[in-house]
Specification:
- It is a single chain.
- With about 400 residues, the protein is of the alpha/beta class.
- The chain contains 13 helices and 18 strands.
- It has a domain of about 100 residues: D-Amino Acid Oxidase, Chain A, domain 2, CATH 3.30.9.30.
- Helices cover about 40% and strands about 25% of the residues.
- The strands form 4 sheets. A 7-stranded mixed beta sheet has the order 5-4-13-14-15-12-16, with helices on both faces.
- Helix 1 packs parallel to helix 10.
């Protein structure tokens, strides 16, 4: 059977790997002209996703490219006292097996694991999908596929073609996130530096193998902002307007963002938005990862959820012998509860991670520091009591 996957970031290559392993012929189409190698932003792989990564035979490569961030030092607005958090201990309490890795590093590893067995088409995108599986492209000739999978992220073009406008399914959950590539002028290697004020967070980090750094901005405005997700100039204006009155390193960071973004360096800006769809499948088409069930960028563990979703989708298609009328409903049943819990987790995380008060900031920093200084066996035992909260992503079951 011939399967087309739209999107070559994370969910697309993982789905392609497992489908090819099960004997399907797979083509991946990617709108970008080549595989993105700008470093991206850091993403988390929790235990279930790590188990799948190991089964794919790329665990050593993932471990080699982990960021290596071990601690965070945070300055609270209005104070001079720094709070240091042992991130290795903190994350050890949340997951029995966790890796932080730059998104584009992970994408490159997954691409290498599939490039010899999967057809990749860069610089093109799907423009229409017919009921019989005939697919037309912006540049390439039309081709017929037995199945079509959208794995092209929160702003999925495939979802728009098959299910309609994005605004039908999105729900803003109160925040925004921006990440920019900047020079590593603070000489960071294994640490994150941060600043927290009511409704606003700024962080700077790098990775052991990177020569540059990333500036991260999280904020909660009183109402939703008006901009297009590809209008970088407008996004930078909104970012500067939100953070212009903050001291610390922020003026320098905003200047660096303007300089690097204007030269085409990595810059990401998006709303913390959830997708709420009753079904991810229609006819021969289904969605996987953020394209179908993004719980919220930066707050919902969407990368781990995407890896698990891709694995489950491919497994159900293999079990059903490629019969999508059986496989797609089975895939949705397997993932439905995990997606619901991830949405709830993200709603709570968006409020917790970007507190709107000094009291909320104090509580967040105190809690994180407490977990990081407790003996690992104690913090893990406490965390396991909350499998739908801080241990949600570790509680997801990976079937064989």
């Amino acid at each position: 059977m011939d399967v087309l996957i739209a999107g070559a970031s994370i969910a697309g290559p993982v789905t392609a790997y497992w489908l090819r392993r099960y004997g399907f012929r797979v083509t991946v189409v990617e709108r970008a002209p080549e595989l993105r190698k700008a470093g991206g932003h850091a993403v988390d792989l929790f235990a279930p996703a790590m188990d799948i990564i190991e089964r794919m035979g790329v665990l050593d490569e993932v471990l080699e490219r982990r960021t290596g961030t071990e601690r965070a030092t945070v300055l609270r607005e209005g104070t001079r006292r720094l709070v240091t958090i042992d991130l290795a201990a903190f994350l050890g309490a949340l997951s029995r097996r966790h890796v932080e890795i730059m998104r584009d590093d992970l994408s490159e590893i997954l691409h290498r694991a599939t490039e010899h067995d999967v057809e990749y088409v860069f610089g093109d995108q799907v423009t229409a999908v017919a009921e019989d599986g005939m697919v037309t492209f912006e540049h390439g000739a039309p081709r017929r596929f037995d199945l079509v999978i959208g794995a092209d992220g929160l702003h999925s073009g495939m979802r728009g073609l098959v299910f309609g406008p994005e605004e039908r399914y999105t729900r803003w959950i109160g925040g925004y996130v921006a990440v920019a590539s900047i020079p590593n002028y603070l000489q960071l290697t294994d640490a994150t530096l941060g600043f927290m004020g009511p409704g606003r967070i700024v962080g700077v980090y790098s990775a052991r193998h990177m020569t540059d750094a990333r500036a991260v901005f999280l904020f909660r405005p009183p109402s939703e902002l008006a901009y297009h997700h590809r209008d970088v100039d407008r996004q930078r204006q909104l970012l500067r307007a939100e953070f212009a009155d903050i001291g610390w390193e922020v003026p320098r960071l905003l200047d660096e963002v303007d300089r690097t973004a204007s030269t085409g360096a990595a810059f990401y800006f998006d709303s913390i938005t959830q997708l709420r769809m009753d079904t991810w499948s229609r006819g021969r088409v289904t969605l996987v990862g953020d394209a179908g069930y993004c719980p919220g960028p930066a707050v919902g563990g969407s990368t781990s959820l995407a890896v698990l979703g891709a694995y489950v989708l491919a497994g159900e298609l293999a079990t059903a012998g490629g019969d999508h009328e059986r496989a797609f409903p089975a895939y949705e049943r397997q993932m439905a509860e995990l997606v619901r819990h991830s949405r709830t987790f993200a709603l709570n995380a968006a409020k917790t991670l970007i507190p709107n008060s000094q009291l909320g900031i104090l509580a967040l920093l105190a809690g994180a520091r407490l977990i990081s200084v407790l003996p690992t066996r104690v913090s893990r035992a406490v965390a396991k009591l909350n499998s739908k909260g801080v241990r949600l992503h570790d509680s997801m079951v990976v079937h064989d």
